[in-house]
Amino acid sequence: MSRDRLPSPRSLRGSSMVRLRIGLLVITMVVSVFGARLFQLQGVDANSYAEMAEQAGLVKLALPAKRGEITDRAGAPLAESVQGTMIVADPTRTAAHAQQIAKVLSDKLDLDYFDLLTRLQKKHTRFQYIARRIPSTVATSVVQAIKDKGIKGLATRPDPLRDYPGKDVAANLIGFMGSDGDALAGLEMNFDKLLSGTDGSETYEVGGGNRIPLGENDLAKPRDGKNLQLTIDRDVQWYTQRVLRAAVQSSRADSGSAVVMDTRTGEVLSFADYPTFDANAAAKADKADLGSRGLSDVYEPGSVEKVLTVSSLLDQGKVTPRTRITVPKELPVMDRVIHDWFDHDKLRLTLTGVIARSSNIGTALAAMQATPEKMRSYLSKFGLGERTRVGMPGETRGLLPAADTWSKVKQATIAFGQGLSVNALQMTTAVNAVANDGVLVTPSLVKGSATTNAGHTVGTDTTTTHRVVSKKAAGQMARMMEMVPNPETGTAPGAQVPGYRVAGKTGTAQRVGEKCGCYDGTFTVSFAGFAPADNPRFTVYVVVQNPRNGGGGGSIGGPAFSKIMSYVLGKYAVPPTGTPHADLPIEW
Amino acid sequence: MSTLMSQARTRVPKFAEDAVARARLSVVPRGETTAARTPFVVMVAMLLVGGVVGLLMFNTSMQQASFTATSLQGKADALAARQQSLQMQLEQLRDPQRLASSAKELGMVAPTNPAFIRLSDGAVLGKPLAASPDDAMRINPLPAKKPDALNPKPLIVRVPATETTKTTRDTAASSTDRTATSDKKKQAVTTSRGGSR
User: Fold this and answer.
1) H or E segment at A81?
2) Between residues A77 and B178, which one has the greater pLDDT?
3) Which residue intervals of chain B are DSSP H helices?
4) Which of A174, A212, A291, A500 is the most exposed, fewest CB within 10 Å of its CB?
5) Among residues A357, A321, A584, which one has the least CA distance to residue A492?
6) What pLDDT is stored for residue A10 in this prediction?
7) Number of H helices and number of E strands within chain B?
8) In A, residues 293-312, which contact B (CB 8 Å cutoff)?
């Protein structure tokens, strides 16, 4: 074109052509480089670049669901989730000052310095967890201190923290959470699904620390966990734990359990174990103390069992409280000889006297009148050999031997509490059936109803009742048990509660040693009872393992029972009935 | 065709010639548009500028709102955390153990023999008795047992009885005497255990 219009000298025309061609060549080369790069970016590894682009300004955040509270029967928190705080870092901004930051953090929060350095300098990311589950006030003050030095890149975010305000109160039941947020024991573990809820998440783009308004934004709201209300009364639980601790420590015993049960509803107001642990610092505790011994350990109940034996005999009409029994010095049964815990010559005791003085021989003689099948079915109806299913993990079912294995000796020893084993809650439930006019109420630890991880629904809503012995037999038994705390007739004067009629029974059983599987000379001492005897409101059971001060159920369990019962009657405003004490003859 | 047309034209009466002349098709001259061009351009420009500025302002205000949201969220988080911390403190203050030890410091003990008033008729049920210091309960654990290495058994060295027998009145004097002698003879060395609360 230009050739036609602008005729110019050949040399000039030639050089312009060369320039144009060179230009074209350069442009072609540049464009091909661009094209190649474009192909590389979009064609070869598009995904990795897209990810990198996303990471550059995208914040992904887990929104932890708030864990449900565990409360006592009045709603006072036993375990609660507090808005703890996590500290997070943006390594692109903290890398330069990593050492300074790490020093402050490791000093104030007791974190590992070198671990912090790695996190603060991590490449290719803008988000790192620095510390989790710390009280918010501490976190904000530390982050502020670092900000004041002119260092940026640290931030705080909410992070629920599990707090147990009562420390060791009901820790044996509630369990605890590990530092990484896993439920590791007790109700926390067994109701984890219910309590934990569902975590949510949020993704958004940030620019200069602020959310970009029309940027990518993705929110899945967390679903908070449900609360779990227990039948436990925090104050009663605390008091029971202190009384139990005093009893165990002053008798130099290994361990102990104490249960307080509402007679009519079967609600467990208190379930204490000692030794126990501080749920806020479970890692420091002895591993053996982390569970509930009262549910997981079995032992032979000893003489408390006589209550069940005699009330079933009363129900069958085989005996009355005044049945006369001649108690020999010792009772040979097959190849064994049964002794009493106290030396005596031939005694003439009524059945009431057998209970009040806790005579093994007398109980065995009375029990001979019933068949093994009948006896076993009564004990089974009393709930022995069956888990109570209150929702606690690791509960034992105890051991109630099958009827066809009951020899004459076995029947005699089972009658006074040897040769079968129970846990503390089973025994409380069984004695409570006598207190509750002969009707067994299944115990519960959870108010309302709740479903365990395994899918069992437990709680007061699922309580069932069934009659074990007649109302008459239960009433007779209660009056006989009133003779036990009576200082003139019984074995446990220390179990009296001033002003009230108290029915109870002591138990001192030989313990089966773990090593030899035989009676090793140590004892389990216990006391079970209820008050007011003529209109029972509460059943209290105290059991102490291996006391070393030579005490028995009356001298160790009795006073602890009295203290707990007195407290719980006062707290729940149960007035004395004002009726005269039972007065049954114990000898003839 | 043209001949037909010309024949027809000739047949047209004279008075209609003007009309025919007007009806004849002819190229319309390009009409000059009278509307001014400037206002339209200005309007479009204004729309454009207004749109851009509006969008910019809208974006800015949203960004501003985002700043505010961030700072308010921060404030809300801080306040929520503070409320939670206070709640935690409150629960720690309501801890039965703390209450019990405060009560104990005030010299209080749990009542063991309370009486009850029946509100319906004002009757007093039970016989009230004042609580005594004997009713106090140990609310703290016994001090942990020291390992044997830290808690050696008292070393007892028997010394032959001295001839001096003094009355109880002179105990103070005699004890100093004994201390003096025991220093020489390295008498009984006892270690004290931690007192129980």
Assistant:
1) strand A77-82
2) A77
3) 2-11, 17-23, 38-93, 96-105, 171-185
4) A212
5) A357
6) 57
7) 5, 2
8) none
Neighbours of B116 (CB within 10 A): 17
Find where tokens 């949201």 sit: B69
What pTM, to 2 d.p., does this model score? 0.75
Chain B residues with beta carbon closer than 8 angstroms to that of A202? none
Average of per-residue pLDDT values in chain A: 87
* Residue (of A371, A350, A354) closest to A363 by Cα position: A354
Token pair in block for residue A167: 């420390």
| pLDDT of B7 | 54
Cα angle A561-A564-A568, degrees, rounded to a multiple of 5: 135
What CA–CA distance (Å, rounded) separates A133 from A83? 9
A124 within 8 A of A55, measured Cβ to Cβ: yes
Strand B116-117, strand A538-545: pairing = unpaired
Paired sense of beta strands A70-71 and A228-229, if any? parallel
What pLDDT, on the 0 to 100 scale, is given for residue B112? Answer: 78
Peptide bond into A485 cis (omega under 30): no
Closest Cβ–Cβ partner in B80, B125, B139 for A578:
B125
* Residue A16, φ and ψ in degrees, nearest 5: -65, -40
Beta bridge pairs of residue A587: A349
Do A158 and B95 count as a contact with CB atoms less than 8 A apart? no
Residue at token pair 């409280």: A321
User: Is residue A9 predicted with pLDDT exceeding 70?
Assistant: no
Surface-to-core class of residue A267, CB atoms within 10 Å of its CB (0-12 exposed, 13-18 middle, 19+ buried): buried
The radius of gyration computed from the CA coordinates of chain B, to the nearest angstrom, equals: 58
| Per-residue pLDDT, A230 | 94
The proportion of chain A whose per-residue pLDDT surpasses 70, expressed as a percent, equals: 96
Chain A residue closest to B139 (CA)? A242
Q: Which of B64, B112, B197 to mutate to test the interface with A (most CBs of A within 10 A)?
A: B112
A303 is catalytic: yes
Per-residue pLDDT at B197: 37
Chain segment A51-71, per-residue pLDDT in tens: 777 677 777 777 878 889 999
Residues near B96 by beta carbon (within 8 Å), at least 6 away in sequence: A166, A169, A234, A235, A238, A239
Q: Are the beta carbons of B112 and A169 separated by less than 8 Å?
A: no
CA B9 to chain centre: 104
Residue A372: cis peptide before it, omega within 30 degrees of 0: no
Question: Quick one: pLDDT band at residue A404, thresholds 50, 70, 90?
Answer: confident
Q: Give how far Cα A377 sits from Cα of A381, A397, B46, Å.
A: 6, 16, 98
Query: Do A498 and B113 count as a contact with CB atoms less than 8 A apart?
Result: yes
Cβ contact B141–A156 (<8 Å) = no
To the nearest 10 degrees (0 to 180), the angle between helices A98-109 and A136-148 is 150
| Whether B67 and A210 lie within 8 Å, measured CB to CB | yes
Q: Do A426 and A398 form a contact (C-beta atoms < 8 A)?
A: yes
- Report CA Rg, chain A: 37
A105, HSE (Cβ side, Cα atoms, 13 Å): 32
Residue B60 above 80 pLDDT?
yes
Q: Which amino acid is at A217?
A: N
Across A247-251, A310-314, A318-322, B185-189, least confident range: B185-189
Q: Chain B residue closest to A157 (CA)?
A: B77
d(CA B71, CA A58): 19
Task: State pLDDT tens for residues A487-520.
Answer: 888 888 889 988 899 999 999 888 887 777 778 7
Q: Alpha-carbon distance A533 to A539, whole Å? A: 10
